[in-house]
Amino acid sequence: MTQRPTPVLRGEERAYFDRARERELVYQRCRTCDATQWYPRVVCIRCSGTDLELTAASGNGTIHSFTTLYRAGHPSRAADVPYTMVLVDLVEGVRVFGELVDVPPAAARIGLPVEVGFQDVTDDLTLPVFRPKGGAIDAR
Ligand SMILES: [Zn+2]
Questions:
Q1: Which tens digits make up the pLDDT trace of 39-56?
Q2: What is the CA(48)–ligand 1 centre distance, in A?
Q3: pLDDT reading at 140 higher than 80
């Protein structure tokens, strides 16, 4: 089995994944202009300021868009197909990306209410994932 690739964690992403390992989804807020952004960056995407703080999200949102992969994006995911990747609009107004779990591909839909969950990939890497609010949707 091919090992799943993992990122080399440095500055902003290290802090992001440390919080994910603690079962917390975070995004950045700019202390200068109050803009929010995800994923973590060195500068604010609105004002280019560098006074950014990590803010905990509720993890609740709705699916903005999705795509289902029937061919694995990497050989390590071959046994997982089909799987669905989603853009989620969090209630905090931030759009984030992740995998949709507990939903068969045919039941994925724009507007589906979701909540964050966490998937341990390695001892050092935990990924936020999204599952339907109210529980798993059975395949039909
Ligand atoms: Zn800013």
A1: 999 999 999 999 999 999
A2: 6
A3: no
Domain count, the chain: 1
Q: Which of 4-13, 79-88, 128-137 has the lowest mean pLDDT?
A: 4-13
Q: What is the residue range of 91's domain?
A: 11-132
Taking the alpha carbons of 94, 97, 103, 107 in that order, is the dihedral positive or negative? positive
Rounded Cα–Cα distance for residues 68 and 140 (Å): 17
**CA 86 to chain CA mean position, Å:** 8
Report if residue 76 sits inside a domain.
Answer: yes
94 C-alpha to ligand 1 centroid (Å): 14
Domain membership flag for residue 6: no
Q: What is the pLDDT of residue 59?
A: 97
- Ligand 1: centre distance to CA 90 (Å): 19
Q: Which residues contact 75 (CB under 8 A, 6 or more apart)?
A: 2
CATH classification at residue 31: 2.40.50.840
**CA 95 / ligand 1 centre spacing (Å):** 17
Contacts of 33 (CB under 8 A, 6+ apart): 44, 46, 47, 49
Higher pLDDT, residue 4 or 30: 30
